[in-house]
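User: Predict the structure for this protein chain, please.
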Amino acid sequence: MSERTFQSQPQTPPGIESEMTPLPEVIRDSYQGTGKLAGKVALITGGDSGIGRAVAVHFAREGAAVAINYLSETEDAEATRDMVEREGAQCLLLPGDVRKPSFCRELVERTVSEFGALNVLVNNAAEQMQLDDIREISDEQLESTFRTNIFSHFYTIKAALDHLGEGDTIICTSSINAFKGNPGLIDYSATKGAIQGLVRSLAEPLAEQGIRINAVAPGPIWTPLIPSTMGDESVTTFGAQTPMKRAGQPSEIAPAYVYLASVESSYMSGQTIHLNGGTVLNC
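Assistant: Here is the predicted structure, written as structure tokens:
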């Protein structure tokens, strides 16, 4: 994967993928689906763009029907649906706010109503705001970040457990910042640490039901969150601090979700896959 140059491109959070320069890479032409998820139904929060979009398209290429949640980015969501359907898979769009517990329950119920089952839950929706002084983080921002990034995991998992069974999986999107911290993303990093605790705490009781739960902890990945929440300098140098000296693409992250969703990872639960450009973490 060659290095890409990122331009200053201010956007309003949570960002629009179709307006990014360059566009993120969603799936590599070389990625060959082998039916790993044939007959499965997946629900992906934050599935309209970025990592969520890439996961949806990879799942579709592996044979899964996909429901994707998003806040209000209709154009991006419809583009993702088109990509999923071009893979020969069904796609259900579910707009709404995962900060609300009632909506998270609705997400699960509508997915099951449409497809008749739920086998893979991907908790991926997230928000962040770049501030390097904890005193500048408002009470409203703190609560919103926690509601989006970790409360929604609780809400959707609680609802999904009425439908998940033997062999089904839950995948949570964590972050490198859960392990090394980030002085400019204090509240965001705290929520990602909470995700790690949730995954580890649920692994044992869910194993008794034959359900696995794992996390993916990306490093710097080129998604709409970056130009919409970071300053010009942070955008133009994004990813340069990694050993690989570049940011990752969603296409490089999504195959890990395929692995965790499939029987290939049947002996793995409570764990985290680190995809961060070569940063070694003591975790």
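The beta strands are 41-44, 65-70, 91-95, 120-123, 169-173, 212-218, 272-275.
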